[in-house]
Amino acid sequence: MSSLNDKLAAALSSREKRHIRRRLPVSTSTVLPSADFTSNDYLSLATSLTLRSAFQSALSVAPQILGSGGSRLLVPAPAHVALESRLERFFDAEKALLFNSGFDANVAFFSAIPQPGDVVLYDEHIHASVHDGMTASRVDSSSLIKFPHNSVAALKRSLRKLLHERDDLRDGKASAFVAVESLYSMDGTFAPLQEIVHCVEEMLPRGNGYVIVDEAHATGIYGPQGRGMVAALGLEGRVLARLHTFGKALAGSGAAILTTELIRDYLLNYARPLIYTTTLTYANVIAVECAFDMLENGSAGVLALHLLDLSRYFLELLRPHLQSAPPELLCLPDNLSVDSPQDPSNTSFPPPTPIIPLLTPHPHSLAAHLASLPRPLFTKAITWPTVPVGASRVRVCLHAGHTRDDVKKLVEGVVDWVQAWLVREREEARHWLNMAEVEGVGVWMESKL
Ligand SMILES: Cc1ncc(COP(=O)(O)O)c(C=O)c1O
Question: What is the C-alpha separation between 63 and 301, in angstroms, rounded?
Fold first, then answer.
């Protein structure tokens, strides 16, 4: 036991030394009002009085509100069935299947659906849950193939090589799955979905290429009534599965996979994260229904418009300042857009993003500075292993509940930090110069003795 403790403690202290030890965030409820630029509550529905009171009213009349009492395979769960039917209609999907979380849904899909002999190609920035699913699958590890972030050319090269090497893929006897996210949570980048779908269809004309799109961060914000990027681009019939999670913009928890009847049936039979767990509580399901009411009645759409306006505003304010900052101290990724039209259901690409990474080798310092302002601004410092070495950042997540003034304060905070850093660097340089001069004098005097 003590050897176990020693090993665990050593691993943690190694993380501590490398400044990558994870800790739970401390409560942000200080006496001062603060602004949350950290969570994925993009539409601020978690604090929406409208959603809260709709949820309370729905709870007061619902026949069941507490625990579901067991796995979906054990209990009839009528509210869950009704929500799935609604999701099928709303998203224009053949079938919907609920999961307790997006994590479970990805693990379920990727561990169960790809068969021995199949291939999974995945974007290098794909979520950890897809990795866990793939690793638990029966696909040989040599057939789990990463491609560079958003590179359709690299995806095409990998597919071409596979087709050259493997008769079964050429003949349609084996399948190739391509796993992408519509909006990536660390970079705020959008997958070029149309090009990816086109590439897969072109390279695998027998129909044995399948695209799976994780819409976790796009749900509720993009596409008609927040249906996501697949719907915004009219690709519903050309992807095998979509994942919509309820825990981010929809202020709930749980997730749904939209897919075919056969895949749904297979998951019900083989997906361990679905079979061996108690399904969502009724209260969960009711909360999700209320969030979907807000998508359908347009009130969430108003919030999404405001959110995307804030994204444009943030970049418009920050970009001019960054021109005078050394890019090795702070910069934005090249691919963030500001010029897109106002309508989030508009398909122009890429749309504005609520996730904005501020790339800096000193993310903890920047995040600490922002949190120390008279009105603390909470952002998230992200380092390896969550992002690659050399790609540390402070991630800003904008919310519909922010005002333009909040965003202005955030930009001012960032600019102040840059300036203070540069002043400190100049002072340090001057100090070392002075020291060198003094030492130089010392050496000169020694040589005279
Ligand atoms: C892209 C992506 N997929 C899936 C998940 C998992 O979703 P959930 O939080 O519902 O487990 C997340 C959450 O971090 C995510 O960012």
Answer: 30
